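Entry for the shared binder. Reason: the reviewer on the internal report wants the predicted structure included alongside the sequence.
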Amino acid sequence: MTKSPVGWEPVRYRVDTDTMAIEVRPWPGQPGESGEGEDASLDLVIHYYPGDGKPWLWEIEHASQHPEHIAQSRVPRYGRFVVSDRPRRSL
């Protein structure tokens, strides 16, 4: 993989697991801090920064089967990201 000249890799894909990680913003916390994840849909976990409660990364399992998640990760709706009411889980 080619490294970004700015040091931020907003989209990462692992062929061996068919998993895609899409950062909707750079990690806002300090190195070593943990985020929280919420199962938002089938094969979609949205990760939040606990310091502000806002999403920072979408993790899409079986990404090749879910182009809708990939497209939706880039488009917030009504100022908020679409998520379910399932409880968040610690990472």
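Summary line for the report: Confidence is low (pLDDT under 50) at residues 77-88.
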